[in-house]
Write a structure and sequence with these properties.
This protein is an alpha/beta fold and 155 residues long. The protein has helices spanning 44-55, 57-62, 75-85, 98-102, 144-153, and strands spanning 14-16, 22-24, 33-37, 66-71, 90-93, 106-111, 114-119, 122-126, 132-136.
Length: 155
């Protein structure tokens, strides 16, 4: 499935996560989930985004929501990233990019004239009903976590 729309059922998943174990969409059944895809641990924009979501995590939790960041990085890299920046959000490892492909965020990108495949920074707000309530494609990090929180409050 390469193009998801608001109202579509969110594709399920189970991925390895930071700290060991796994995380699945099913374990948050009946709760809203913020599922955000980002390109790479410990890069400037990805770090700012993770820190912003971590800073607002108590408010997301008060609203009953889980926040899950997904990138193709390994669990080991996620563990280092989380420790280095005191992150408390869930970081899921999508090493084979199967979930990124399922959500349609694994795309051809161009930088400095070079074309490559990578994650397009995208956030999905999944409602309590398991359906996609909102999509933010090509996310700009500044103010994004706050915008997602405001949208969550309107669900």
């Amino acid at each position: 499935m390469s193009h998801l729309a608001i109202g579509d059922p969110a594709p399920g998943f189970e991925l390895p996560r930071d700290g060991g174990g796994s995380v699945s969409l099913k374990q948050f059944s009946g709760k809203p989930v913020v599922l955000y895809f980002y390109p790479k641990d410990d890069t400037e924009a990805c770090t700012k985004e993770a820190i912003a979501f971590t800073g607002l995590l108590p408010e997301f939790e008060r609203a009953g929501a889980a926040v899950i960041g997904v990138s193709p990085d390994t669990v080991r890299k996620h563990d280092r990233f989380a420790k280095k920046h005191a992150l408390s959000i869930i970081l899921a490892s999508d090493e084979d990019t199967a979930l990124a492909n399922l959500y349609g965020v694994w795309k051809e990108k161009t930088m400095y004239g070079r074309t490559y495949m990578g994650v397009e920074r995208t956030t999905f707000l999944i409602g309590k009903d398991g359906k996609i309530a909102r999509i933010w494609p090509k996310v700009k990090v500044a103010g994004h976590a706050e915008e997602v929180l405001e949208s969550l409050k309107t669900l």
